[in-house]
């Protein structure tokens, strides 16, 4: 059963990830979040959201998240990548992209698509738990 939302960001995109998490903080607080070590640590520190952290990208954290995708544990991935200046120590999008496509898991690689994916998850939360009247 897909339960988690995965969050990964290259170094230059971490500030955007933090802003995104703040914008969707109420919705994300209702989700089980998993992130690579650096991204997850910043999210926890700067937003107060609880994040399960896997290894850093350079130590295979992206592959750990890929394994969760393959095991049907991830319902969406936000991977804010830096297509122009990604460094060798940063997570690789290719393996995550491939496993998301194989398993039909939404993958946002830029802020605009991330907002669409998170807005959809919020809509699903509203359907599952309608507001009290």
TrEMBL record:
<dbReference type="GO" id="GO:0019242">
    <property type="term" value="P:methylglyoxal biosynthetic process"/>
</dbReference>
<feature type="active site" description="Proton donor/acceptor">
    <location>
        <position position="62"/>
    </location>
</feature>
<feature type="binding site">
    <location>
        <position position="14"/>
    </location>
    <ligand>
        <name>substrate</name>
    </ligand>
</feature>
<dbReference type="InterPro" id="IPR036914">
    <property type="entry name" value="MGS-like_dom_sf"/>
</dbReference>
<feature type="binding site">
    <location>
        <position position="89"/>
    </location>
    <ligand>
        <name>substrate</name>
    </ligand>
</feature>
<dbReference type="GO" id="GO:0008929">
    <property type="term" value="F:methylglyoxal synthase activity"/>
</dbReference>
<dbReference type="Pfam" id="PF02142">
    <property type="entry name" value="MGS"/>
</dbReference>
<dbReference type="GO" id="GO:0005829">
    <property type="term" value="C:cytosol"/>
</dbReference>
<feature type="domain" description="MGS-like">
    <location>
        <begin position="1"/>
        <end position="133"/>
    </location>
</feature>
<keyword id="KW-0456">Lyase</keyword>
<comment type="function">
    <text>Catalyzes the formation of methylglyoxal from dihydroxyacetone phosphate.</text>
</comment>
<dbReference type="InterPro" id="IPR004363">
    <property type="entry name" value="Methylgl_synth"/>
</dbReference>
<feature type="binding site">
    <location>
        <begin position="56"/>
        <end position="57"/>
    </location>
    <ligand>
        <name>substrate</name>
    </ligand>
</feature>
<dbReference type="InterPro" id="IPR011607">
    <property type="entry name" value="MGS-like_dom"/>
</dbReference>
<comment type="similarity">
    <text>Belongs to the methylglyoxal synthase family.</text>
</comment>
<feature type="binding site">
    <location>
        <position position="10"/>
    </location>
    <ligand>
        <name>substrate</name>
    </ligand>
</feature>
<protein>
    <recommendedName>
        <fullName>Methylglyoxal synthase</fullName>
        <ecNumber>4.2.3.3</ecNumber>
    </recommendedName>
</protein>
């Amino acid at each position: 059963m897909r339960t988690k939302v995965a969050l990964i960001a290259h170094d230059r995109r971490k500030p955007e990830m933090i802003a995104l998490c703040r914008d969707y903080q109420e919705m994300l607080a209702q989700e089980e979040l998993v992130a690579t070590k650096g991204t997850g640590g910043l999210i926890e520190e700067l937003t107060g959201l609880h994040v399960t952290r896997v290894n850093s990208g350079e130590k295979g954290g992206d592959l750990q998240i890929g394994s969760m995708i393959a095991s049907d544990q991830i319902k969406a991935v936000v991977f804010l990548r830096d297509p122009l200046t990604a460094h060798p120590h940063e997570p690789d999008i290719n393996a995550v992209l491939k496993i998301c496509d194989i398993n039909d898991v939404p993958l946002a690689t830029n802020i605009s698509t991330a907002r669409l994916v998170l807005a959809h998850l919020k809509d699903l939360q509203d359907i599952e738990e309608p507001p009290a009247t």
